[in-house]
Write a structure and sequence with these properties.
Chain lengths: ~260, ~400
């Protein structure tokens, strides 16, 4: 098991002392928040790792700033949990998240800055932006606003990375596209399994009880919608990078369901 | 790089379309997934398809009988088969716009709009994205040509005299319906025009009456004074029963709508239904990856909707111009010009068929008959006429 710095994942989420009853859907939001919080903490860990391989001090500072930003997002999700009276836990060692982290660490081990950006900004953030935006539309009050605001912030991250990645692709399109495809096979396959309509391969190790997916329609969400929105965002992001749409369509069509 | 299609290269034309059934959509996704992967379950396809942004699905290459070649892309707008109703118009227009933008970015010189794509935009071309070197055609002129040829051919096959027929056109004021009316009105005894918009009906009726045509019009096809024995259904109907009541029992019915869903049912077992507006490529048609029989699901090889063939024919002709745009501008002369271009490149009326299968036989040597001007021409005769100085294919 990877040793995770406690400062990154130790976000306690004690319930308010005066809390007496849960609002409808609170237990569903608890699991949604747990997934989001885990994703943000994983992103914080990834950016911290990225800082270690940055040659340029400005890039290193940038990565650390991003890590801090992601940790702030995680804290915001924890706070939203407290607001609705639920404890939001996280588990960066959960089966899918752990595989995503390991994929990122392989890029770190190869000191491949561009691959790191592709994994974090193109793949993981596409998933985050699309999912948070959908949740932001249906979640009540402050919870919805927080998801929507964080979705907007994550989108800004992507725009920043896109400039770097477009410049890199311009140097050698074929090599760049090959790299994206290899990372796609590893990372997007894991994300596709996470986003499957039901967790038929076992518990995700983040949800508190049984899988939250079947209950999502109770809060006007669905696993299919979150997956669809995420894949749409991913394809549009790859379009913006300049990858041929007919090729990326095939990639997505070949993902597991 | 993984993926079965090479990056976008120089393209002459783009074809924008969508799948008309979930079965067709499933087949497209099955090809994209590849034979080594399990096909997606139907419920997954219904979940995923509406989220796919418009994009190219495959490369298309067409070869003329004379050796000319043109290359293009098939771009699927991924309009879901169950989202063709009015409630989805805004989203569907956005999808067609995105598909058009894709075609422009790919550098297509001419773009054909298939199926609902042209229906959505035929009256409003300014909804297309800004473009400099790309022109758009609805493809409706060649569609009309093939519908009219099909009607003539079916009449000949059934031994009917078109000149003694009452022709009913459902969806008469649309671009295709009005084009068919102009091409056939003078060749039949009486024309019945049916559409929802009364004012447009009046205008079309007045135009035809000025040429001496006997015209009736009604918003409800049940209200005509006599039975029609030849019908062109240019509107997409949820049920063919909408047509029943004032049709001759053995009426010839051309399903020119999209998707094609008319069938000789129990209510009209003797009706002769055929699918209209389809053409066949005799020179050569290839899809990369291989979507033969998937994108063109017909019982005969290399059959394609006329609207898409128009763009390909114009590309083979190096005539990159918006041949069909707007609504109500299709004339017999324009149809003849378009048919001549198509025929010059070996694009002819497809053998007739309907939901139950082929209505005629076809051999790969091109040994089939075409109805031209009320006369059946063998392929050799057709070729001779095409090579001649003044080919006249529509007979209109």
């Amino acid at each position: 098991m990877e040793t995770v710095p406690e400062s990154l994942t130790d976000l306690k989420c004690a319930l308010p002392a005066a809390f007496t009853s849960l609002s409808p859907g609170a237990l569903i939001w608890q699991d949604v928040l747990a997934q989001a919080m885990t994703g943000e903490l994983l992103a914080a860990m990834n950016y911290t790792s990225l800082a270690d391989i940055c040659d340029n001090p400005a890039e290193e500072a940038d990565a650390l700033e991003h890590a801090q930003g992601e940790r702030g997002h995680a804290a915001a999700f924890a706070a939203e949990g407290r607001r609705i009276g639920v404890s939001v836990t996280n588990n960066v060692d959960a089966r899918h998240w752990k595989r995503l982290r390991q994929a990122f660490l392989r890029c770190i081990a190869a000191r491949d800055f561009i691959a790191c950006l592709i994994v974090q900004e193109i793949m993981l953030e596409s998933f985050a932006v699309a999912s948070y935006a959908r949740v932001g539309k249906v979640a009540p009050g402050s919870l919805g606003k927080t998801f929507a605001a964080i979705a907007a912030e994550e989108e800004e991250h992507i725009e920043h990375a896109m400039e770097i990645l477009r410049a890199e692709r311009a140097l050698d399109e074929q090599s760049f596209d090959d790299k994206v495809y290899q990372l796609h096979l590893e990372v997007m396959t894991t994300l596709a399994e996470m986003l499957a309509k039901d967790c038929s391969h076992g518990h995700c190790e983040v949800c508190h009880g049984s899988c939250v997916k079947p209950a999502l329609p109770d809060v006007r969400l669905s696993a299919a919608e979150l997956r669809g929105a995420s894949l749409h965002q991913y394809l549009k992001t790859l379009d913006k990078l300049g990858l041929p749409g007919e090729v990326t369509l095939t990639w997505v069509a070949q993902l597991p369901v | 790089m993984g993926g079965s299609v090479a990056g976008v290269t120089e393209v002459d034309f783009a074809l924008i379309g969508h799948q008309e059934s979930w079965r067709a959509a499933a087949d497209v996704l099955a090809v994209l997934r590849g034979p080594e992967r399990t096909p997606l379950p139907d419920d997954e396809i219904r979940d995923i398809l509406p989220w796919l942004p418009p994009r190219a699905v495959c490369h298309v290459a067409i070869e003329s009988l004379g050796g000319a070649r043109a290359r293009g892309l098939y771009i699927d707008s991924f309009i879901a088969p169950d989202r063709l109703a009015d409630a989805y118009v805004r989203d569907n227009i956005a999808r067609v716009r995105a598909a058009a933008a894709y075609a422009i970015k790919a550098g297509a010189k001419i773009v054909s709009l298939g199926g609902f794509s042209s229906i959505l935009i035929e009256g409003n071309f300014d909804q297309l994205p800004q473009r400099r070197d790309t022109v758009f055609t609805t493809g409706n002129t060649l569609t009309v040509g093939f519908i009219v040829q099909g009607v003539r051919k079916m009449c000949a096959m059934e031994g009917r005299d078109l000149r003694r027929s009452t022709l009913l056109i459902v969806g008469a004021t649309g671009d295709i319906g009005s084009g068919c009316a102009r091409c056939l009105a003078r060749d039949v005894r009486r024309v019945q025009l049916s559409a929802r918009n009364v004012e447009r009906l009046r205008r079309l009726a007045a135009e035809l009456e000025a040429e001496g045509v006997e015209v009736e019009m009604a918003t409800d096809p049940q209200r005509f004074s006599s039975e029609a024995d030849v019908v062109i259904c240019a509107a997409s109907l949820a049920s063919p029963s909408l047509l029943l009541g004032r049709l001759a029992p053995e009426a010839i019915i051309c399903d020119a709508g999209y998707p094609k869903n008319l069938a000789p049912g129990t209510e009209m077992p003797r009706a002769k239904v055929f699918f209209g507006g389809l053409g066949q490529v005799m020179g050569g048609l290839t899809f990369t990856p291989d979507f033969h029989g998937v994108l063109n699901r017909h019982p005969f090889p290399d059959v394609v909707h006329g609207c898409l063939l128009e763009g390909m024919a114009l590309a083979l002709e190096h005539r990159f111009e918006p041949f069909s745009q707007g609504r109500g501008f299709i004339t017999p002369e324009r149809v003849e010009e378009m048919e001549t271009i198509a025929a010059r490149h070996g694009i002819y009326l497809a053998p007739l068929y309907n939901a139950e299968g082929p209505l005629e036989s076809f051999s790969s040597t091109g040994d089939f008959a075409l109805a031209v001007g009320g006369t059946n021409l063998g392929h050799t005769e057709m070729m001779r006429r095409i090579a001649g100085a003044s080919p006249r294919l529509s007979g209109s």
